[in-house]
Amino acid sequence: MPVSLFDSLSLTLRPLAPSDGHSFRMYCCGPTVYGPAHIGNFRTFVIQDTLRRVLETDGLQVRHVRNLTDVDDKTLRQAQSENVPLATVTRRWTERFHADCAALNLLPPHLEPAATAHIADQVALIEALLERGHAYVSPDGSVYFRVSSFSGYGRLSRLAERELRPGGEPAGPVDADEYERESGGDFALWKAWKPDDGEVRWPGPRGAAPGRPGWHIECSAMSRRHLGDELDLHGGGVDLKFPHHENEIAQSECGTGHHPFCRHWFHSEHLLVEGRKMSKSLGNLHTLDDILARGYSPMELRYALLAGHYRKSLNFTFHGLDSARSALKSLRKLAARLAGSPEALQPLARPQPAAPWGRFAGAWAALCDDLNVPAALGEIFGHAHDLTPEQSHEDATALGRLVFALGLEPAFAPASAPAPKPPAAVIALAEQRWAAKQARDFATADRLRAEIAALGWTMLDSKTAYRLEPARS
Ligand SMILES: [Zn+2]
To answer: If you placed Cys at 214, which of 188, 282, 401, 405 could pair as Cys (CB 3.0 to 4.6 Å)?
Structure first.
């Protein structure tokens, strides 16, 4: 059954297929590695991972690329505030991001290109834009994209409709490359070096000053490098639609002359926390560690993040995590009835596409219909009472495949032995690290975290406490 998905450019439900008939090329905007990713970021990554799993379950070969933004305003500001090299900050938060992704059972992307490792690709694309008249060098040596040179600008975000609204953004060059900044004006492709950038600078495109790339250009350059001039699918949170994805389209289509840059746009909606927008000032930018420190498991979080349709904003609550916990218990019970025990559903190796879905055909159909996870879960639980052990073999296999598609396999693994107690030496280091962190001495805190890790332990911090766990392998 082909998987259909809503395309946020054409606003239609369309079947997904690789344009080269071989491999489905999927690019997703990754994290900016200057701090821990929060559960709003992870909602998007979990949804993208689930789409990839559904496509693979359907027998498609997927090539998944997700970038790392390791140079921009935020990463530079963080390095400056800690008075450490940029790479110290970005390495630390990349490692943390990887650990969180592994805990949430996200399949690693096939490639994870970093912006600082692709400066030459970005410079080459900017030079192509300058040559074709789509960009200009400003008096300070920065380079801006000339939005008026691209008639397709604004299609994805329906910019014309926005500008008709009172209070629309004024046009004009915009320096910031932050997510939240919106402008209908020209945007930076290359930013001339400023003293605030410290040691961070590269030789610029021809005619421009030394400096660093703007934020948007990296995705155009890296997706092209690793997936070619036309992507099968591009994903991201809805907040990236404008200006980031709009700018990517402009840069890519003007720089390569190839239209379209991307055949399918996939945006997931916002996450609210306890009914409110996530923000630093409200203190509700929860991280995975915050959730674990409250005694929930990564699979309970994954389930809770998947429980709403990706095209609707999801209200995350701790009550929702409790519901996820009981739903996972029910799923294990169902697995036990069909397979003898939850663990007997294992191993959930990559499933065979032609295998029958039996009683779970409706659940699979829901996943193929615009990734409707809530409907699929409803279908699964709807059969909880009419399944009999006589039909169980086929149904158990089908349920195992659904569990893989939803990325919930770890919840069906054998229960682990009770957690071992950390030795006194590890506790002493953890106390020192906590004190250093409270004193905002991040260099010492990092060093101690590494020492604790070398002893085989991971420290999980919430805002008010920490706990120690054996290091995830
Ligand atoms: Zn991007």
So the answer is: 188
End-to-end CA gap in the chain: 36
Say if CB 68 and CB 31 are below 8 A apart: yes
H or E element at residue 271: strand 271-273
pLDDT band at residue 169, thresholds of 50, 70 and 90? Answer: very low
Spacing, Cα 380 to ligand 1 middle (Å): 35
Q: Which amino acid does the sequence have at 184?
A: G
Cα of 299 from ligand 1 centre, angstroms: 27
Closest residue by Cα to residue 253 from 157, 119, 120, 151:
151
H helix or E strand, kind and range, residue 361: helix 361-368
Distance from the CA of 30 to the center of ligand 1, in angstroms? 7
Cα 73 to ligand 1 centroid, rounded to whole Å: 15
Structure tokens at 419: 């957690």
Query: What's the rounded Cα separation, in Å, for the pair 127 and 20?
Result: 29
Q: Cα(245) to centroid of ligand 1, in Å? A: 7
Nearest to 239 by CA among 301, 178, 283: 178
Q: In whole angstroms, what is the distance from residue 122 CA to residue 101 CA?
A: 27
Sheet holding 233-237, edge to edge: 62-66, 24-28, 233-237, 265-268
Q: Is the pLDDT of residue 166 over 60?
A: no
Q: Which residues surround ligand 1, an ion (CB under 5 A)?
A: 29, 219
Helix H or strand E segment including 6: strand 4-7
Which is it for strands 4-7 and 271-273: parallel, antiparallel or unpaired? unpaired
Dump pLDDT digits (tens) for 87-144. Answer: 999 999 999 999 999 999 999 999 999 999 999 999 999 999 999 999 999 999 999 9
Say how far residue 70 (Cα) sits from the centre of its chain.
15
Which helix (H) or strand (E) segment holds residue 343: the answer is none
Check if the beta carbon of residue 28 is closer than 8 Å to that of residue 110: no
311 C-alpha to ligand 1 centroid (Å): 19
* Cβ neighbourhood burial of 115 (10 Å; 0-12, 13-18, 19+): buried
Instruction: Say how far apart CA 362 and CA 31 lie, in whole Å.
Output: 35
